[in-house]
Amino acid sequence: LSCSQYHKMYRTVKATSGRQIFQPLHSLRAAEKELLPGFHAFEWQPALKNVSPCCNLGIINGLSGWTSALDDAPADTITRRFRYDVALVSALKDLEEDIMEGLRDSGLDDSVCTSGFSVMIKESCDGMGDVSEKHGGGPALPEKAVRFSFTIMSVTLVTDDKEGEVTIFTEPKPNSELSCKPLCLMFVDESDHETLTAVLGPIVAERRAMKESRLILSVGGLSRSFRFHFRGTGFDEKMVREMEGLEASGSTYVCTLCDSTRAEASQNMVLHSVTRGHEENLERY
């Protein structure tokens, strides 16, 4: 329902039944603020480098944090996203009860465990296919959409004593869309290297900055410090090739990590070896 439709229904039901079955609109808005990233206070030590200083956190323009050169054509894409660190904070606060329960189940005294938490993040990115309107008339946009999202796979704690790492939380359904947090939605065709790279550039910069720093966040009433580890395992091969500047289907290379070309592969279908890595692909690009 639109806000006005909802409000009308709320008034009608209240007037006819005399009972307040639905929440008034302002209380829904207040609840929504808590669920959107940007509600919880947090701090990075050291402060994040190269991160958009935009403070009214919530949904921001997907290109914010992207330093444009003078001769850049404005990217004809509409993209909206959360700031990466703010979205991670929100996702961790969602897991607050699970983390506290995990500490209790492991027999750890939560007042002692304030540092040494490490969080494993699975990143996913994929095209959402054709999202064109049935009867055009909207803004002239690419009619394809791409979504970048992440999932908190596990939270572990490195304890001081002999036990080493204790796993406090593991995502029970890592492939479910319910555990997958959207970070950035963009109207862009996933086979348009340049625009995709421009849009995901700020996200990559924020991720780099977060790897060098620790997050200080209040969980269970105490400030605790978290380090993040990122694994981009939710990309299909087509998307990996996009990010690394290889054409997906029209590429001369047969495989993402092998230097064998189509011509060579048609002669030799057996002997192939991994000859380059993702880092090298990015450098070549």
Automatic annotation (TrEMBL):
PANTHER family: V(D)J RECOMBINATION-ACTIVATING PROTEIN 1, VDJ RECOMBINATION ACTIVATING PROTEIN 1 RAG1. Residues 43-115 form the V(D)J recombination-activating protein 1 pre-RNase H domain. GO terms for biological process: adaptive immune response; B cell differentiation; chromatin organization; T cell differentiation in thymus; V(D)J recombination. InterPro entries: RAG1, RAG1_DNA-bd, RAG1_pre-RNase_H, RAG1_RNase_H, RAG1_ZnC2. Residues 119-251 form the V(D)J recombination-activating protein 1 RNase H domain. Residues 253-285 form the V(D)J recombination-activating protein 1 ZnC2 domain. Pfam families: RAG1_DNA-bd, RAG1_pre-RNase_H, RAG1_RNase_H, RAG1_ZnC2. One of its GO terms (cellular component) is DNA recombinase complex. The gene is RAG1. This is Recombination activating protein 1. GO terms for molecular function: double-stranded DNA endonuclease activity; histone binding; protein homodimerization activity; sequence-specific DNA binding; ubiquitin protein ligase activity; zinc ion binding. It comes from Priolepis hipoliti (rusty goby). Residues 1-42 form the V(D)J recombination-activating protein 1 DNA-binding domain.
